[in-house]
Amino acid sequence: MPSEMALPERVDTLLIGAGMSGIAMGYHLKQRGLEDFIIAEKSDGFGGVWRDNRYPGAGCDVPSHLYSFSFALKSDWSRKYALRDEILEYFETCAERFGLGSHLRAGIAVRSLTFDEGEGRWQARFADGRQTSARVVISAVGQLSEPFTPEIDGLSDFAGPVLHTARWDRSVKLGGQCVALIGNAASAIQLLPEVSERARELTVFQRTPNWIISKPDRAFTSVEKWAFAHIPGWQRLYRWGSFLIHELRYPALVRGSLASRFTRWTGRRKINKGIKDPDLRAKLMPDYSPGCKRILLSNDYFEVMQRENVRLVTDGIARVLPDGVETASGEIVPADTLIMATGFVTTEFLPTLEVTGADGRCLRDVWGASPRAYKGVAVAGFPKLFLLYGPNTNLGHNSIIFMVERQAEYVADKVSLIIDGGLKSLSVRPDAESRYNAELQTRLSKTVWAGDCPSWYKTADGVITQNWEGLAYRFARTLKRNDDGDWEAV
């Protein structure tokens, strides 16, 4: 098994993370004949967040044919928006198809990276104390890998099961239970239908209401699957059509645009039509621009929230008791099981890694509260360290896999330059990084993400660290431009 394979003392490339970014990166390294690499993965296999997220109803909000690699099209997706198990199987199949299993070292977590300027190599230390030396390090840990649990007084004293959506325990039975669901965003609305059917009572604790649009989901017919598999070019045309439709949604994320105002109007209309009770309707009506927080897709959310055994609480949580939750207004809500749908640690990037670069500088200190990178993939002063799905490479309107593929291609070219050219160091110039990010933040200030709403897209001081500021296609063009002058090589 890969997890039992020896860890080499020296390797050309250390790739951290075996999720979709790690698989894409492994594929592009092998395409360029760069075979001397290992993939260090803290869990027991490929899949990343799709391996970790096993909660009921887990799925993707991007169409299946678009949420897949351009170099590994799948003609037999079961439905337009695939669920978790099918997505995980797809990524595992890709890893096997491209021979990445022999590169995987599963069940080991990288804890620190230190750059040795004398050797021009990164020294990596793992959680079990072992070490390896790499010419290049590529982080593919993603933005949504470390679960976030808020500090709530009394949480550790709760007597029943406490489940986090990112660490779900399928052995816990919810039938006949009083369930308290803390959180009301993407993962919450996916698991709500199934949990509400199992639980005797379900109380949903909401901090901020969400804008919700319909999800055009359905199963693919056998005729459609046949066409994808047998009509030359049809699946790729279908995929590009889906990509262009999603690109057309970006104007709705520009502050003050006609598309943004129209999205607000249709969202309010949906709530007004879907919720009968005026008090519940008022609680579910957002007061911020659509897209400032992630817009959610659901066809049954409003129906579920009006079920007799479902209740919405917006008072806030004062503390958790051994057998329930006390609200800020003093009400005691009984609970047998707590579900934390509270998302991930998003704005820190590499939160579990201690990274020390040239001149002994710590990446966490360099970043401070607002991580940044050149084109989302490199940080000045940290030679031959590359990030996938790094700062400002997330999207609010299209498929992240498109973005990650472009980054993997870009990084693979840089790795080829390093390995084939025998470079001791390759680092982005500080002035190039500063210029890039100054321009980026100026453009981001014109988007709805700069609005006054709490979201995981930005830090506490208001800097948008997660999202790219325009069309996905424009990001691809940015990475394609010749930027040799922005790099220093030794």
UniProtKB/TrEMBL annotation:
Keywords noted in UniProt: Monooxygenase, Oxidoreductase
GO terms, molecular function: monooxygenase activity
Domain of life according to the entry: Bacteria
InterPro entries, A to Z: FAD-bind_Monooxygenase_sf, FAD/NAD-bd_sf
Name of the protein in question: Flavin-binding monooxygenase
Source taxonomy: Bacteria, Pseudomonadati, Pseudomonadota, Alphaproteobacteria, Maricaulales
